Amino acid sequence: MDVAFWQQIVDSYFQIPEDCNLIDLTSDLMQHLGASDPQLRDKYAYNILSRWITLYDYHTPDELRQMIDWLLPRLQTNIGSINDDSVFERSYAALILSLIAYRDTRSSFLEMEEMHELMRIGCEYLLYEADSRAYIPEKGWANAYNHAADFLRFLVYSPLLAPNEQMTVLHTVAKKVMMPADTVYIHDEDDRFARIVIAVLRRSEVLMADLVAWQRHFTNWRQENPKPEEYQLTYHATHQNIKMFLRALLAQVELMEYLPHVAHEFLPALIETVRPFTL
User: Fold this and answer.
1) Which of 6, 30, 133, 151 could disulfide-link to 98, CB 3.0 to 4.6 Å?
2) Whole-model pTM?
3) d(Cα 66, Cα 62) in Å, to the nearest integer?
């Protein structure tokens, strides 16, 4: 990557040089989304693409589709691995996909079949991403869990996702939060997951009965997993993650400026779900 060239673009408020082709530049930038060098990955590749996609709307719908086709396979690069640099390619593919999903909330260019495929792959990615690292010394942010959460949150805003599909996303979130873990959320993962639920509540389309059934996942986990007599890291980390997620969700519901009817109805059930996880 010619750092000086890209710095000129940043300095010119992300304008495309007259003698350059947008698609060629986009392709070059996307090749560096998986770089372990944070300057290449974050300062240039992500920083420039984010402006071009969401602020300046440089890319046409067909060009965004081409980007999607390139990015989706990157979500599977060494999926399930931990503590290696492949996390950057997966995570930043999810991050750029979240920006494209956000762009769709403004211009609605994706077809229903395309949206359903993105939802399916996004849910699979969140479940199978195993690298929980957020900030990595000398290499910068990986943040795969948060980027996956952002991707799903912007997908949920699409009117193309029916209530049952919105619930599929919520069930995916519940499965992820309850997965046995040896690390505790310390980089706002709980809040990012909760924001997906808030996005669904804002849609006000899911049934209260479905939300109550969803929250029982957490109540059942608590009943089926009593505190062990001997210290077990996995139990305590998983318990803490569930508790933090539920508290984050409760706080975000309480802080909503406008409480949709379904959220108002759901609040008492949510409080009762949080209670067993509280001393």
Assistant:
1) 151
2) 0.96
3) 6
